[in-house]
TrEMBL record:
One of its GO terms (molecular function) is glutamate-1-semialdehyde 2,1-aminomutase activity. Its main location: cytoplasm. It catalyses: (S)-4-amino-5-oxopentanoate = 5-aminolevulinate. This is Glutamate-1-semialdehyde 2,1-aminomutase. It is found in: Cytoplasm.
Amino acid sequence: MTSTTDLNQDLLTRAQRVIPGGVNSPVRAFNAVGGVPRFVERAQGAYFWDKNGQRFTDYIGSWGPMILGHGHPEVVATVHAAVDEGFSYGAPTEREVALAEKILAMLPSMDMVRLVSSGTEAGMSALRLARGFTGRNKIIKFNGCYHGHADALLVKAGSGLATFGSSSSAGVPADVVKDTIVLEYNDVAQLEEAFARMGNEIACVIMEPIAGNMNFVRASVDFTRRIRELTQQHGALMIYDEVMTGFRVALGSAQSLYAQKIEGFKPDITVLGKVIGGGMPLAAFGGRRDIMEKLSPTGGVYQAGTLSGNPIATACGLKTLELIGAPGFHAELHLKTGQLMQGLKSEADAAGIPFSVDWQGGLFGFFFLPELPTHYPQVMTTDQARFNRFYHGMLERGEYFAPALYEAGFMSAAHSQDDIDRTLEAARAVFKTL
Ligand code: PLP
């Protein structure tokens, strides 16, 4: 153990000299939980190995893309073949068309789709499209939802909710976020009030259907239905950010689950990422034809990308989507994730620790709270110190969960019964120490 920590520490020290914080995305720095991040050497199936050769059961899977586990042989073979044909052309390919067709076949709300390289880019472009289509500026987002780091979406709640937020990042001019309204997730009254006050100025409401950026919080059916009704009544668009939930919580994504409960439910625009690239930089946004045709070159809303629809990324995404389309894939994943979550809950109960869990398909969340939270301020009432002790206890035992209490967890098809049993055994030991 000591040598593992030392090698990771050595690399962190070296990294911090040349990369801000030593990492290329902040959560990797372990700031929320403290300690030294593990530098990954390689990964296979449900595991990765750090610099020193310690193996971890990986419940992050690159924050979502690796739904098949690492290095699935068919995906690897497909990517190898694609590499031989060239890395990038900057001209259209058949594979882009095939991937677009595949995505549309699985998401009936979408008539057309545009491929991009990251969820941030997809969210930013969807927002511009919604504003261009409606000719309006104001947007509604929800406290605790993350839609990538486009300036207008990097907004936290203001002092009173249902007011305009302030940016959560330095470097974002107040003018750029002056049209971003931040409301509390699952709060129908605030939503109704905002539409009553300025409904005819609102371009769109953007939401995560299951908020994976405040651990795991479902939008209630009522809340989702009201968003759909109010946007329709006021000529605003509903943007469903399924970057995390897309093809992970169900083959038809979260929208298929809500469509089972809300008659005719369809968002106007859907934002996708993560699973659709299978671990390669690939994301997308799509929706109704009349909206999507407003994009350049057919319409006046500009959007472009040198690496958009990259041939290797599309090959990887196509193969991944093909494999997760196998009958029963998501049902099995859901059962397995449930086994892990119910197991953790039983171990916490046995240790007398208040704990709550939720999951859908291959996405899960657990809270050191007696009841599941419904919005961000409740999520943040979690006992941070206890979460951190749990986190490090599990890490020491080779169980790799998200290093922050407000992040979701990810199960893959490669996790076995033995993996889950081992994780639960580790949890039993760790809960006793909390
Ligand atoms: N939207 C959601 C719901 C996300 O979870 C994320 C990333 O975690 C993004 C957008 C941004 O995607 P990316 O990190 O690919 O830019």
